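B., you asked whether I could sanity-check this one before it goes into the benchmark set. Here's the sequence:
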Amino acid sequence: MHPHLDAEHEKLRERVRAWAEENAAAAAVKDDGVEAVAAAAKALAPLLGRAGWLKHLAPRPFGGAGETISLRELCLLREELARVAPLFDSVLSVQALGMYPIALAGSDEQKQDFLPALADGEKIAAFALTEPNAGSDVASLQTRATKRNGDYRLTGIKSFISNAGIADVYIVFASTEPAAKGKGLSAFIVDARSPGLDVREKTRLIAPHPIGVLALEDCFVPGAGLIGREGDGMKIALATLDALRPTVGAAAVGLARRALEEALDYSRSRRQFGRALADFQGIQFKLAEMATDLEAASLLVYQSAWMHDRGVGSKRCAAMAKLFATEAAQRIADQALQIHGGLGVVTTSAVAQLYNAVRALRIYEGTSEIQKLVIARELLK
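And here's what the prediction gave me:
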């Protein structure tokens, strides 16, 4: 048993793994066009909801699975779903990003209005923070929120927004006090049907994952759509990212575990020079390094999640978990591809798809470079 998990966690792992393997065909996107990927992602939300997996993204009083949101449970979900099908993980992870700000800082009325439907998969959420000129530098975002008679009008451009075009609800971050920069940011719940909201430039990442650009032009948001208070936006955004970073590491662990499994199977069956690849010392060294990286990544991820669940989590541990796990997963996927040789670079091969899926994890929710900055700053405090 994993040192940071108990018997109930392991039972959850078994259930999620069995379900994912049984339903893997639903996450297989044969047409890699933008609309096909978006349609597949949209269809998976209610499937994940009916299985009960999205309920782990909300507290029980608002349609959730437990009294509080357990990060270890989220990590298990992401690891096992990613291992079987990256699109399963994509849908759950973006739903988590959209739901967590409401669960963290929303009013009871907002939680009741949105979380149950999102936890059932009846509605799809999205997290709209990034802008063309404001990615890692959140304080530089240019989207403005102007208050008029108690309501708000949002104007600006949001880019690289996951679930753009299929989301029912967007969590949008905008400045209510531009002169205050980061301290002037606020968070809003924006209905996808709101006048003034337009989805443009829909595309997909190298792994099946729909993204797009949100254009907000005098977009109406009622006063009840403000999450927390004006000026809380930066705090809400960073708290969401800090909490969920270990789960990104968990997804990396799942992808890496599958890559190692593929490499082990292939090295046993593929014969060269009269013997199996697995009999060559060079291949054995690769497999040993991959397994060691995987074990270390798993320990960091679940230690960070365990600390968060105990109320003693830290930015440093969360950043370390994401940094090491995603970088290790890339090394593992690369070695798995190398072991497969020419077959590894065929776009339809499992290892090529895993390689592409891992690559994005080193960028979103804070690049590896940003994680290093976070770790260093925490060390130097």
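One thing to flag: The CA atoms of residues 105 and 332 lie 38 Å apart. Otherwise nothing jumped out at me.
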